Amino acid sequence: MIELADTSFLLVPNQNVHNPDIGRQGWGHVNTSDLEIIQIFTTVQEIVNPKKVIEIGMFAGHSTCMMFQYFYNVEKIVSIDPNLFSKRASLPIKEKFGSKFQFLPTRSANLKKVLPPDNYDFMFIDGNHNEPRPKEDIQSAKDLGVKWILVDNVELPGVRHGCLSHDLYNIDYQPKFFFYQNYHRGRLSPGIMGLFKL
Ligand SMILES: C[S@@+](CC[C@H](N)C(=O)[O-])C[C@H]1O[C@@H](n2cnc3c(N)ncnc32)[C@H](O)[C@@H]1O
User: Fold this and answer.
1) Dist. CA 1 → ligand 1 center (Å)
2) Residues near ligand 1 with C-beta < 6 Å?
3) Which of 31, 81, 115, 142 is 20 to 30 A from 185 (CA-CA)?
4) Using one digit for the tens of pLDDT, what is the confidence trace for 56-68?
5) CATH entry, 25-197, from 3.90.190.20, 3.40.1390.30, 3.40.50.150, 3.40.50.1820
């Protein structure tokens, strides 16, 4: 029997509020009760066995909870997000996971300056999907010596270009792709996550 990640303590975003001054809340997020998504995170656990994790784009913390639930050897998750909403959303997550969780209110392009290297072995990339952000996200993983990255929404042009600009579809990066479907703002969209070994 599959145990779902507990998200009951997370701040609930209001999809209709997307004002940068009070925090953008209209972003999509992983559906923590979707079997396809659970399968992706459990497969990553089998292949990578992540211990020290960086998350680009925490938003409300749903994917953070997935990683705490299914990465059962995880020692630390550092989540970053410049979103004012995420700053508030990080507080109950910190309360629940304590020293295993760190939130940095920054964007990926600044990450190298604010986070010292610490043998990070895995990064989940789910920030801004438009160019040049995905390219910057991947660069931040390389700068910190991260070994594996899981990139959400590689079906979107900006993310695909970011991956191609780092040559990630080259077979040397051992790409693996995972398909899922997600409801957001009344629409059902296809999504693809790509797992790459840097
Ligand atoms: C799709 S949401 C993340 C959803 C979350 N990963 C989940 O599934 O629960 C994207 C988030 O990325 C953040 N973001 C946008 N640009 C970013 C950047 N350059 N670095 C880090 N986070 C960024 C946004 O503020 C937003 O909260």
Assistant:
1) 31
2) 24, 27-30, 56-57, 59-60, 62-63, 80-83, 86, 107-108, 126-128, 133
3) 81
4) 999 999 999 999 9
5) 3.40.50.150
